[in-house]
Amino acid sequence: MSSPIDVDDKSAPTTRRRFLKGGTAVASGALLGAGAAAGAETNNLPPGIPEWMKAPGEPTGGQLYGAPSPFEEGVVKNISKTLKQYISASSRTPLQELDGIITPNGLFYERHHGGVPTIDPAQHRLMLHGLVERPLIFTIDDLRRFPSESRIHFLECSGNPGYTKPYGKTASDLVGLVSCAEWTGVSLKLVLQEAGLKPEAKWVVAEGADAAALTRSIPIEKCLEDAMLVYSQNGERLRPQQGYPLRLFLPGFEGNMSVKWLRRLHVTAEPVYSREETSKYTDLLPDGTAREFSFYMEAKSIITRPSGGQRLSAPGFHEVTGIAWSGHGKIARVEVSVDDGRNWQDARLQEPVLTRALTRFRLPWQWDGKPAVIQSRAIDETGYVQPTLAELLAVRGENYFYHNNAIWPWRIAADGEVTNALA
Amino acid sequence: MRLREMCGIALAIVLCACGSGAQAQSPYGIGRPATPAEIAGWNIDIGRDGSNLPKGRGSVSRGREVFAEQCASCHGEKGEGGLGDRLAGGQGTIGAAKPIRTVGSYWPYAPTLFDYIRRAMPQNAPQSLSDEDVYAVSAYVLNLNGLVGADATLDAKSLAAVKMPNRDRFVGDARPDVKK
User: Fold this and answer.
1) Sorting pLDDT into bands at 50, 70 and 90, what band is A41?
2) What integer pLDDT is reported at residue B25 of this predicted model?
3) Fewer beta carbons under 10 A from the terminal one: N or C of chain B?
4) Which CATH number is B72's domain given?
5) Strand B32-33 relative to strand A345-346: parallel, antiparallel, unpaired?
6) Which chain A positions have a beta carbon within 8 Å of B48's beta carbon?
7) What residue numbers bound the domain in which B141 lies?
8) CA distance between the termini of chain B
9) Which ranges carry the Moybdenum cofactor oxidoreductase dimerisation domain (chain A) (predicted)?
């Protein structure tokens, strides 16, 4: 018996081979002009009659939970194949393949610290205790009885990307640890009020029901501002990878603090100083001091098209588009340069522009076919301007590791190939 | 329940509601009380000062045995790292160009070691070690870093008393740190 890793391509089912062949355009990241080649051998193009019009299609209800077209099978999460282990690891959203601001649930980035637990919601409980008048235990059904709310927010891993080479090739490689969704749940403030906070309550320690029992301390101000206990994402119940059946959500804060599989909230007078908030998720400066409790994700943007790994088919019109976001509020402006940073112009922002959410920007562009460097920079409603990598490195050094929100330029070669300009 | 008791409870609820406003009663009446036993079973948080550390004690020598069985396959026999993080050494490198972050060189509080080992280690069977063995492994890791002697036995009090070398090197978040 041959090794399962040593798969012979000829053994793949015929349909799968056909789809793979048809989906080459997506898998290779070619941007434009792939359609003509795909249909060249058939009579599907004008003036012919496409084969899919000559017979009925698949029966209704053939997929009771739908899946993308097989021609999109290359649009999947991006995960390194060379990690030492996959229990505490991450997978990235293919940002360069997506439009708009909402990340499909199946493509939402993942970061787990002890694997993905399979939790029976009927046997899951949230315990709320510590500096409260009435320690309480809630079932998921209990939490769904509270007044609910839905809000659109991004979630971003704190290390997205690091500060040192090798830098990623694609937008996903670089900053694919950000995604955005509509979250539905109950305001954490309501649940805390249900238990009654004591006056000395200053922090809330959140704990997950995963094998890491991941623990982070959250300042009470954030808990009472806009924190949510979330049970649904983009209209359906959370996926296991996103904390099913219950997660904390802290808009604008580094992702690991939005504790998944939430099982306990411990109201305290000071942080618990867990391993995750001392030995990890602290930012080491060149002088050997390290910043702790650095919660916010600062303003950031990335051009997703054209971006690394893609190719412009020809000179002429191309839309430059991407995403911008800030943990401190709304995006006020996004500026784009198409001449290696000499001149900057305002991109158009797609409505809705929401607080602590991805914002889509666009700029029409005529490419003259000469080598170019394009880049975007976000300015948020506080007036903060997204910095360059050089500016960040000058202050933070290479060992800071987290919270890299640098401008990331793309180089476009004369043949249209797009690559990372800093790599 | 007798009428007098019921009247007393009703009066207490009214007084509470008047006395301290909305927080005196559950606004929605959702959820049920958590009992002390339930809280004790789930609350595994250990403060940086060692608060909530359980009874029990463990020695460096016992920790060496448990570590060899449960930890060394990922962290190395002497905590030199592998699939898992490096745990020992690196003291004095944190401000250098290539810092080596370990328990001994970077972690600010020793009780966090107990907290983390108990809740998350070993990775294939977290919360499986006895409290005594968690003390013992904590003691062994601290010994690998030269922070307790080879004959040490740690309990709640002595673990909390271990001063970690990097403790005073943590500062607040000074961002925004790039200003235009």
Assistant:
1) low
2) 80
3) N
4) 1.10.760.10
5) unpaired
6) 272-273
7) 57-167
8) 70
9) 296-407
Q: Kindly report, residue by residue over A332-344, the tens digit of the pLDDT.
A: 999 999 999 999 9
Share of residues in chain A with pLDDT > 70 (%)? 90
3-state class (DSSP) for residue B11: helix
DSSP code at position A83: -
Residue B145 has pLDDT above 90, yes or no: yes
Of A321, A281, A275, the residue nearest A301 (C-alpha): A321
Q: Is B26 on the interface with A (CB under 8 A)?
A: yes
Does residue B6 form part of some domain?
no
Q: Looking at this predicted complex, what is its ipTM?
A: 0.89
In whole angstroms, give the CA distance from residue B141 to residue B63. 8
CA of A396: which chain B residue's CA is closest?
Answer: B177
The residue to which tokens 């339930």 are assigned: B38
Quote the tokens at residue A150.
């839905």
Interface test with A, best of B16, B51, B123, B166 (most A CBs within 10 A): B123
Mean pLDDT of all residues belonging to chain A: 92
Render pLDDT for A246-269 as a digit per residue (tens, 0 to 9). 999 999 999 999 999 999 999 999
Q: Which of A143, A205, A284 sits opposite B99 (nearest CB)?
A: A284
Number of domains making up chain B:
1
**What is the set of domains in chain A, with CATH numbers?**
110-291 (3.90.420.10), 300-420 (2.60.40.650)
What is the spatial distance between Cα A193 and Cα B40, in angstroms, rounded to a whole number? Answer: 22
pLDDT at position B179 is 79
Query: b or e along A312-347 (b: 16 or more beta carbons within 10 Å of the residue's beta carbon)?
Result: beeeeebebbbbbbbbbbbbbbbbbbbeeeeebeeb
Instruction: Kindly give the interhelix angle for B131-144 and B111-120, rounded to the nearest 10 degrees.
Output: 120
pTM for this predicted structure? 0.90
**Domain contains B149:** yes
Q: How far is CA A177 from the centre of its chain?
A: 4
The alpha carbons of chain A give a radius of gyration, in whole angstroms, of 23
Residue of B46, B138, B171 to mutate, testing the A interface (most A Cβ within 10 Å of its Cβ): B171
Is B12's pLDDT higher than 80?
A: no
> Is residue B73 situated within a structural domain?
yes
User: If contacts are CB pairs under 8 Å, which of residues 136-155 in chain A contact chain B?
Assistant: 136-138, 142-143, 145-146
Label residues A18-27 b or e (16+ Cβ within 10 Å = b). Answer: ebbeebebbe
pLDDT band at A20 (very low <50, low <70, confident <90, very high): very low
- Taking 3-state DSSP, the helix, strand and coil percentages for chain B, each rounded to the nearest 5, stand at 40, 5, 50
- Asked, for residue B80, whether it belongs to a domain, the answer is yes
* Mean pLDDT computed over every residue of chain B: 90
Least confident among A7-11, A66-70, B67-71, B87-91: A7-11
CA distance A91 to chain B (A): 18
Give the integer Cα–Cα distance in Å for B103 and B60: 16
Is A38 an 8 Å CB contact of chain B? no
